[in-house]
Amino acid sequence: MIIPININVLGTQVRIKMVTEEHIKSHDKDNPDGYYEGSQQCIFLSEKLDNENLRRVLLHELFHAYLTISGQTNYLKSNQEEALCFVMESWINLFRDSEFVEFMQDEYY
Ligand SMILES: [Zn+2]
Predict the structure, then answer these.
(1) What pLDDT is recorded for position 100?
(2) CA of 2 to the centre of ligand 1 (A)
């Protein structure tokens, strides 16, 4: 899977770096998969992730980046931010379902 080096988030270039699981654990012992570092505008992802989890974790961290860059994290407690990122990460799976995509593109819905 090809992962972009940068993603434009609300006009800010967010870098994406693949790093060791040890690097990520040193930042957050509870989540060995990845994290978003706002001070560096960078998403760090574990190089141990398989393709399916890489996509899921990248989406999750991208939502953290959106919330941080847009300033919305100022209104959220950390558990609320996690819940929102989890919901968004799950929500995007709807768009992988072709019947749902066809429904959303139907001009009569
Ligand atoms: Zn999170």
Answers:
(1) 78
(2) 22
